[in-house]
Design the sequence.
């Protein structure tokens, strides 16, 4: 009878192993023949182990050597015949479609039910068989242990094989544009494992941004991805999230710091378009999935999660052409900026802020680098590049685990666009400008900024918004007609004031939204302008120059827990980098021009410049001195005594003074400006040729 038992046991184990293999293979757990064979062996071994240990248990309770019991056990093995229709793919006319979809589970339930009944029958058979000694039970236990070892070996080798069979993401990171946003990303196929190294520091959170690849057909576009992130340290933490994909942009996903172990040094990311069943998630099973579906993954980016000790977020807002003379808080006749005035009055405000150049590219690059246009190279016809070894504020903040984003409207203006160098340091770069509709223009940009902030509220971030709409000086329906006295032929100044009132609602409204939310307690807001708009007495716009009216720009910064006040000392846009770096807890070297204006007077006079023709201007005390030497930018160092000079006394109004009456003062200013240019060339690494005057002075 033992031979019959072993024969039926072997056949039934083979059928059980085949059924388990087919069931799990359909779920992605047998990606190759070799792995599938190991799975079938492990399941069959487990089945044999259970059968033999059941016999050992029954014999321990009611010792017997009767062949009747083994015969009953052999009959119980026949329950696996219920599984044959599934293995042979016999069509069953199910009465309900739900049963058809759950056919494997129906077969499994039928087997377990019948098998359980037959096991009860064999147990009762043992109760009525002749008793015997218990010594032979050791043989059954030994056989069960051997079968268990075979099962564990097979399942272990199956698990090892399935991990090795998982496809790996092999694509390299590249810059992609999705919608209006540029980000460094890589294509990840469904089920492919993407692996990343994780540097160690405190409060690490992971930011992953997912998008449908550009050019993917929209008819079958995915709406949702189920993302798995395994963070590997001494133990592995598994995070599963459903991400709602956007049809024309990046969807943001965060893995909080509590799910990133302090000792974790790497992570693995993969996604599927269908969620894993609950039983798989509970057991920790992960199938192998292979398909042609692809998504873009920007990240995972390591950002510092916000805590009570985390430095503030930074929001930098630049408004092209914002003139302090046209702000209603400065006694302007028209009430153009009530919301911006409110922000200025509740911040640390600098009424005497100065631009390095009446050109947006030059001024904004100074904002990001803390050095003048000659140093950074975005000056006149030159568009960089930055000198080697120089960093932008965005790059410094990114290196200190800030999420960084820029919304520049540069494609509309032809300056701060992707590829111009202004994208350096930003892991999210959007240079679009949408003109259509009441929510177009800078309002659309401001809305995008708020949305981005909401997506990154759990980590510390820096976001730059450039609002360029004032520079257009065109009548738009969304502005209304506040100050357009002659709508058919409006003056430039009237169009400007009307647009400024609209910009006040856009940017002032953005600032108000930030300060009325939970961001108020942890967000620093800086408002500035790269240059001011200036108008002649007839209301026409004055072309860019180095006048006091065009170079003086408003600068205001709100820092949580810093008292509001007006600081009437002179500051410059280049002083923004050291000020914000201090707020962020970052130490800078002393090679930049700027000084932190939050610590008190910066102790230097701001220098401004234009490239064509090359001109320099310095604001010192109540004087503004402008010099046009007979050299070109990035040419020779200007020689004091050459060129044309103008001197202005700055008070309530700006009045030109005769240079001939202030010869020594003008000579001193020229010496200072010539040395300023020489030092800037040296900083950049530019070696200008000697001028004829310098050659004459050489020994």
Sequence:
């Amino acid at each position: 009878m033992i031979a019959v038992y072993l024969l039926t046991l072997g056949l039934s184990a083979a059928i059980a192993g085949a059924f388990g293999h087919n069931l799990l293979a359909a779920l992605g757990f047998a990606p190759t023949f070799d792995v599938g064979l190991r799975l079938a062996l492990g399941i069959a071994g487990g089945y044999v182990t259970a059968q033999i240990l059941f016999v050992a248990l029954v014999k321990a309770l009611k010792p017997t050597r009767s062949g009747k019991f083994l015969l009953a056990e052999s009959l119980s093995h026949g329950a696996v015949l219920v599984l044959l229709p599934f293995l042979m793919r016999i069509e069953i006319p199910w009465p309900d479609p739900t049963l058809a979809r759950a056919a494997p589970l129906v077969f499994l339930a039928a087997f377990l039910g019948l098998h359980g009944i037959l096991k009860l029958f064999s147990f009762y058979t043992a109760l009525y068989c002749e008793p015997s000694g218990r010594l032979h039970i050791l043989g059954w236990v030994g056989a069960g242990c051997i079968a268990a070892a075979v099962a564990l070996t097979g399942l272990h080798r199956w698990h090892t094989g399935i991990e090795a069979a998982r496809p790996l993401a092999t694509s390299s990171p590249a810059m992609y544009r999705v919608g209006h946003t540029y980000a460094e990303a890589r294509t990840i196929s469904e089920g492919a494992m993407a692996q990343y190294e994780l540097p160690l520091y405190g409060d690490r959170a992971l930011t992953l941004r997912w998008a449908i690849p550009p050019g993917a057909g929209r008819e079958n576009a995915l709406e949702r991805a189920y993302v798995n992130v395994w963070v590997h340290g001494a133990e592995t933490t598994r995070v599963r999230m459903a991400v709602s994909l956007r049809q024309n942009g990046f969807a943001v996903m965060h893995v909080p710091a509590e799910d990133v172990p302090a000792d974790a040094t790497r992570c693995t990311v993969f996604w599927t378009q269908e969620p894993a069943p609950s039983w798989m998630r509970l057991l920790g099973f992960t199938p192998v999935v292979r398909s042609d579906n692809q998504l873009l993954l920007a990240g995972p980016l390591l950002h510092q999660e916000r805590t009570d000790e985390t430095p503030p977020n930074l929001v930098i807002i630049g408004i092209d052409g914002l003139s302090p003379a046209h702000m209603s808080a400065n006694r302007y006749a028209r009430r153009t900026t009530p919301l911006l005035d409110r922000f200025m009055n509740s911040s640390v405000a600098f009424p005497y802020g100065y631009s390095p150049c009446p050109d947006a590219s030059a001024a904004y690059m100074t904002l990001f680098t803390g050095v003048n246009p000659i140093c950074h190279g975005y000056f006149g016809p030159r568009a960089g590049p930055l000198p080697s070894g120089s960093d932008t504020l965005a790059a410094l903040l990114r290196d200190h685990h800030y999420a960084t984003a820029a919304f520049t409207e540069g494609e509309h203006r032809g300056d701060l666009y992707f590829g111009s160098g202004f994208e350096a340091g930003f892991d999210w770069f959007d240079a679009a400008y949408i003109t259509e509709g009441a929510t177009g223009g800078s309002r659309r940009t401001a809305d995008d900024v708020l949305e981005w902030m909401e997506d990154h509220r759990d980590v510390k971030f820096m976001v730059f918004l450039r609002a360029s709409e004032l520079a257009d000086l065109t009548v738009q329906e969304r502005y209304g007609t506040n100050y357009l006295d002659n709508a058919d032929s409006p003056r430039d100044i009237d169009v400007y004031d009307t647009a400024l009132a609209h910009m006040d609602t856009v940017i002032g409204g953005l600032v108000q939204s930030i300060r009325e939310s939970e961001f108020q307690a942890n967000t620093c807001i800086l408002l500035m302008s790269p240059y001011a708009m200036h108008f002649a007495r007839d209301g026409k716009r004055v072309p860019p120059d180095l006048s006091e009216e065009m170079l003086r720009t408003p600068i205001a910064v709100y820092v949580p827990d810093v008292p509001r006040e007006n600081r009437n000392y002179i500051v410059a846009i280049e002083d923004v980098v050291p000020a914000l770096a201090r707020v962020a807890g970052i130490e800078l070297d002393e090679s930049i021009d700027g000084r932190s204006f939050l610590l008190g007077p910066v102790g230097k006079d701001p220098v401004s410049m234009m490239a064509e023709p090359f001109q320099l201007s310095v604001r010192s005390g109540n004087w503004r001195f402008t010099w046009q030497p007979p050299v070109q930018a990035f040419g020779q160092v200007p020689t004091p005594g050459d060129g044309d000079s103008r001197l202005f006394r700055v008070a309530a109004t700006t009045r030109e003074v005769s240079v001939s009456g202030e010869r020594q003062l003008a000579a001193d200013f020229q010496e200072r400006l010539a040395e300023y240019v020489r030092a800037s060339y040296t900083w950049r690494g530019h070696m200008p040729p000697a001028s004829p005057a310098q050659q004459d002075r050489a020994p």
Observations:
- The CA atoms of residues 483 and 498 lie 5 Å apart.
- The radius of gyration is 37 Å.
- The longest strand covers residues 294-304.
